Amino acid sequence: MKQNLTARSVVIVAVILICVFGIIGFPKSMADLKKNWDNNIRLGLDLKGGSRLVLQVQVQDALKAEADMVINRLKDDLKKQNISWTDISRNDPQTVQDADSIEINVKGVPATQSSAFRSLVNDRDSDWVLTPTSSTDYVLRMKPSELLSMKKDTVDREIQTIGNRIDQLGLAEKSVQQYGRSGDDYQILVQLPGVDDPARVKELIGTTAVLEVTSVVDGPFPTRDAALAAHGGVLPLNTKVVKQLPRGGSEGEQWYIVNRNAVITGREMRNARAGQDEFRKWETDFTLSQDGGKRFGAFTGANIGNRLAVVLDNNIVSVATIQSKIDDSGRITGLGSQDEAVDLARYLRSGSLPAGIVYLEERSVGPSLGADSIHQGFVAGIAGLIAVVAVMLVYYKRSGVNAVLALILNAVVLLAAVSYFGAVLTLPGIAGIILTVGMAVDSNVLIFERIREELRAGKAVVSAVDAGFNKAWWTIVDTHVTTVVSCAFLFLFGEGPVKGFAVTLVIGLIANVFTAVFVSRTIFDYELSSQRRMEALSI
Amino acid sequence: MELFKNTNFDFLRWKWPFIGASLVLSVAGIVSIIAHGGLKYGIDFKGGALMTVRFAYPPPIDKIRTAMAQKIKGDISVQNFTDPASRDEVAIGTELQEERLLNANRQTMADVLTATFGQPQSGKLDFNNTSQQQLIDRLRDPLARAGAALSEQQLQTLVVNLLRFRDTPPRSGIVTDFNQLSAVPGVTPTVLNTLKQECYLAPFNIRNVEMVGPKVGAELRTKAILATLYALAGMLVYIAFRFEWIYGLGAVIACFHDTIITVGLFSIFNKEIDMTVIAALLTLVGYSMNDTIVIFDRIRENLKFMRRDSLETVMNRAINQTLSRTVMTSGLTFLTVIALFIWGGPVLHGFSFALVCGIIVGTYSSVFVASPIVLFWHNYADKRKKRTAPAPAVAPARAETLRKSPTRAAK
């Protein structure tokens, strides 16, 4: 019994140490302590202020763009093969739900050329399924697997692009993630703690980025005025002045005069990625669409030695000299570092937001409200806690101390779990904590009342404590398991706040079984063992 | 100290008046919901825009409403809060017919407030509603001109400190006099003068903006209701497994009863149901279930050695035995919730209201709803058995019940 007690005490002390470390780490000063606390116990947007946006990606836009591309290519190919047609057009799905209905109608292909037409389409547009609707008309529908991957890809690119743009705000914490059922909601959740100006964020996200690759006419200049002055205050026809985004080792501002008409735009950029050349120098490889490649080939062939600028949202991200004719794939070489190559690839890829967006939800909690909520929640929490502690001590005397210790330990374990799991504390989470505290008090009360009953029935102290714990045990198990079962369902089927509630509650309940039963029992046993013969129990 | 020692109240004798009261309350709630044309949902569930604005003085509600109505279509609600901590705050709600309006609406509402209460024509920046970046951009050049040029880092620290001062209580977002700012670290007379030149102090602060598209609202509502129903079903199965199916049913009906009465009270007091209220309803379901199980557990235990007594006596005994615990736990939880209701602020208002109602109803339903349901069923089953097998000579009908109840000895 004695040894058992020591072993149990060791377990309890170990748990306390691990939990305290999880909450405050190893602080060396008060400032350190506060910093660690703030880092470990992260508050939700509703408590500390910030903005939360839910937006929906209009995936049908991307599908329509894809269909347009196919139509252009088809027309080109048909011309080459001398196949005639009267009309090729696509339908115009308006909503996300209709996106899958995208189709291309081909009309008036002569029956004599039908086999040539079919083999051409099957050969060139294998992502689409061709179905004849009459002897001369056909309809092209996208393969379901292709539809799925195209939509997924659109959402992924959108998430990446929005993330990149928000990076411009230079926030310490931000999160851009998929939201809702992944398959068919196409929603993105953007969370920006501490941002009280969602209008600016929306401005940043909302403008569809325009990526252009265009020829450089003149530059660089240190200022906009210098660029104008070099041309006598009047810009050459069809040009504009653009600033280069500052890079890591910035040499001050650089301005260029570039052509207003882009050679290629983001829509023709198929892919881009960072790579290394034979001398292990970093470069960015890119591929263009067929149409874009043709135009780019013609342009680069005629302009070897001239410079090209990659312009994203009217900011130059890169200037490169044309070394040779480039068709549908090329490289931008001579980049300083891997980061630079990766960034440039990202810019090239993300330049075009592949689809429009619609905002479904916007919440912003001003920092003053956040501060007030924390303040009020704190006052209320402390007031409630003091009341509970006072009543427990008056009603159960010495044993009340037991309960209060268990209660405090419960809170410590709960906070530590929040910290270790990287969970975020929100208002519904606090609701979960309140229920936890209620059930923790309840467990203690159940046990104490049982012990009192046993004492009243005339049992000796030691056996009364034993019986009290044993009899209350199954009740505690039943109440806790029932709640855990309901939490499991809330977690599986609930959304956002409901989930947060379920998670904190489950953690709290597990902590509670540990503190109210295991820890409280150990304290009782310790008190009982310290006296040779326990005459009375203060309860 | 002990409040209840060996009590022996005949609780179940009074079941009918209490069941009657439950029915009256439930029906009153349902009637109120129907009379109001459904529940009053917060914008979480119906969609719309809601802006919480704090004023430096008691807010002129009619003026706000008129100003808003000129620019924004549809229903506009302007409500002030009743609790003393936030009596200078108003919640301005507008309808949102379509997702696409989401973007424009916030701006319009903010513009109307500035036009009505601010000084838009002065060309100055509103210090009470500025964001960090705006203020940094605004102050950079004037400070340099005034001979107090700061590095980007210093400027940012200064602005962060200024805004933090503005946002902490007792200002809580509203500075009424620039001279208050002289207490902020880094604020020199030059900085203060520049602030006075570049900014003005509007008598309001936008504290919170929520906009939910109507589609998302409907979706959130469905999901919350479904999650709750699944959770109830899960609990029913567990209790049915641990006790008898009728116990599970009794407990779930009691929870349902609590939820309906609380929701009914929300309707009667014309309070909105939003996401935090759902969290509170979940809490009260958990709480009520806990309470019921404690009593059921005791009934099960008593059944083992009170074989000769009627089920009603056994139940009464169990309720009396757990009475002290029930009062203690409910009382203590109630204390916590009351603290939250009084000091928790407007954000937690709906939440704590639901819990205050829920704890009272939840405690009472375990005794007067859940237990009688089990009792009725067993009495009914006994009667039916008597009718089908008349005059059992030795075995009393209750023996059947007893065998069905899992005994603790088996555990």
Which range best describes the helical content of chain B: under 10%, 10-25%, 25-40%, 40-55%, 55-70% or over 70%? 55-70%
The largest sheet of chain B, given as strand count, sense and whether it forms a barrel, is: 4 strands, antiparallel
- Give the count of helical stretches of chain B: 14
Could you give the order of the helices and strands of chain B?
HHEHEEHEHHHEEHHHHHHH
Biggest sheet record of chain A: 5 strands, mixed, barrel
Tell me the distance between the termini of chain B.
Answer: 34 Å
Q: In angstroms, what is the radius of gyration of chain A? A: 34 Å
- What gross morphology of chain A would you assign? elongated
Main sheet strand line-up of chain A: 9-11-10-16-15
Radius of gyration of chain B: 30 Å
**Mean pLDDT score of chain A:** 82
In terms of per-residue confidence, which ranges of chain B show pLDDT below 50 for 5 or more consecutive residues?
Answer: 392-411
The helix count of chain A comes to: 14
Structural category of chain B is alpha+beta
Give the oligomeric state: heterodimer
How many beta-strand runs of chain A? 19
Got a strand count of chain B?
6
Low-confidence stretches of chain A: none
Determine the most extensive contact between two protein chains.
Answer: A-B, 84 and 95 residues
Indicate the proportion of strand residues of chain B: 5-15%
Structure description:
The complex is a heterodimer of chains A (539) and B (411). Chain A is of the alpha+beta class. Helix content of chain A is 53%, strand content 21%. Chain A is built from 14 helices and 19 strands. Chain A has helices at 2-24, 30-40, 45-48, 59-80, 114-124, 144-167, 198-206, 224-229, 290-302, 338-350, 367-420, 427-456, 461-493, 497-530; strands spanning 42-43, 50-57, 87-90, 103-107, 128-132, 138-142, 175-179, 187-193, 211-221, 239-244, 255-259, 264-265, 269-276, 282-288, 307-312, 315-321, 329-335, 357-365, 424-425. A five-stranded mixed beta barrel of chain A has the order 9-11-10-16-15. Chain A has a four-stranded antiparallel beta sheet with strand order 7-8-2-18. In chain A, helix 1 (2-24) packs antiparallel against helix 14, helix 12 (427-456) packs antiparallel against helix 13 and helix 13 packs antiparallel against helix 14. Chain A is elongated and about 105 Å long. Chain A starts with a helix and ends in a 9-residue tail after the last helix. The mean pLDDT of chain A is 82. With 411 residues, chain B is α+β, with helices and mostly antiparallel strands. Chain B has a four-stranded antiparallel beta sheet. Chain B has a two-stranded parallel ribbon with strand order 4-5. Mean pLDDT of chain B is 84; it is low at 392-411. At the A-B interface, helix 7, strand 18, helix 11, helix 12 and helix 13 of A face helix 4, helix 5, helix 6, strand 6 and helix 8 of B. Strand 18 (357-365) of chain A pairs antiparallel with strand 6 (204-212) of chain B, so a sheet runs across the interface.
